[in-house]
Design brief:
The chain contains ten helices and nine strands. With 276 residues, the protein is an alpha/beta fold. It has three domains: 38 residues; 104 residues, Reverse transcriptase/Diguanylate cyclase domain (Alpha-Beta Plaits, 2-Layer Sandwich), CATH 3.30.70; 127 residues, EAL domain (TIM Barrel, Alpha-Beta Barrel), CATH 3.20.20.450. α9 links the parallel β8 and β9. α1 runs antiparallel to α2, α4 runs antiparallel to α5 and α7 packs parallel to α9. The longest helix has 24 residues. The protein is elongated and about 110 Å long.
Length: 276
């Protein structure tokens, strides 16, 4: 309607004043308006991932319903194995997922919410051919976000009994070039960013798995010492999360000893007592 009004006014002016050739100019304005409203590709692109967005998915759904077209869709919600992601972890997971979904040749990916994607397939055969490999690659990418965390065990010598009844769990970060990053490099950053909460739980889970597999008892270890950061004590669900891990891996409380790291402040004492 805006284009028609501009065009009619321009035609009247040009009719009354033939020397003003503005009909072509009005046509150009109208074409620009149509392009910006109907064909602007940036309006349909999700800036975070480069995939299509929810608005375009709505248009496709409405158009398919009106025209009786059918397709097959898969809705995927990315979730951490334990706890919840902070914003940095969520962005990393979403980026990894987009790198898998965006290049799909026979499917179209839409990023519709913070950690949710919808993938449209034209027919069930394409869905069956693509789904397993797509899911496997997604699982691998998201697992790799955690797999660079490695735990080493430093034995603790008992002078009275002349044996090694326990060990301390030491966390290291495996870099992309294969080298190990010492804790002094990444623990302070993890504490400042809040990542220490998920990192601490991941380390604890790896220790629980180590005990459950029998590797600890085979080495004569009766218990493992695990560090807790002062930042973790601010997490109200910490006790429940630890209890959940112990139940899942059938860990007895005496098999793991928690040590509050040196960064803890005296003000955390009350929080620590609440968790106990």
């Amino acid at each position: 309607m805006i284009w028609q009004m501009i065009y009619i006014i321009a035609a009247i002016i040009q009719y009354l004043h033939p020397k003003y050739l503005i009909v072509g100019f009005a046509t150009s304005i109208g074409m620009f308006l149509l392009f910006s409203q109907l064909e602007n590709p940036a309006a349909d692109i999700d800036r975070e991932t480069g995939c299509y967005n929810l608005e375009l998915l709505k248009k496709i759904l409405l158009n398919s319903y009106k025209n009786g077209h059918s397709f097959y869709a898969v809705d995927m919600v990315l979730k951490p194995a334990e706890g919840r992601w902070n914003e940095h972890e969520r962005k990393a997971a979403v980026t990894q997922a987009a790198e898998v979904l965006y290049p799909l040749k026979k499917a179209t990916a839409f990023h519709i919410l913070s950690n949710e994607f919808v993938v449209i397939f034209p027919d069930p055969d394409t869905l069956n051919e693509t789904f397993d490999s797509m899911r496997g690659e997604l699982k691998k990418r998201l697992t790799d976000l955690d797999d660079r965390i490695e735990v080493f065990y430093q034995p603790i010598y008992d002078l009275d009994h002349h044996n090694f009844p326990s060990a301390e769990a030491l966390v290291r970060l495996r870099q992309t070039d294969g080298s190990l990053l010492p804790p002094g490099k990444f623990i302070p950053v993890a504490e400042d960013s809040g990542l220490i909460r998920s990192l601490g739980l991941r380390v604890l889970e790896k220790v629980c798995a180590f005990i459950r597999q029998g590797a600890a008892s085979a080495s004569g270890l009766q218990s493992i010492h695990v560090n807790l950061s002062a930042v973790q004590l601010d997490e109200s669900r910490l006790a429940a999360q630890i209890s959940s891990l112990f139940s899942r891996y059938s860990i007895k409380p005496g098999q793991i000893n928690f040590e509050i790291t040196e960064s803890a402040k005296i003000g955390k004492k009350k929080k620590c007592l609440q968790h106990t």
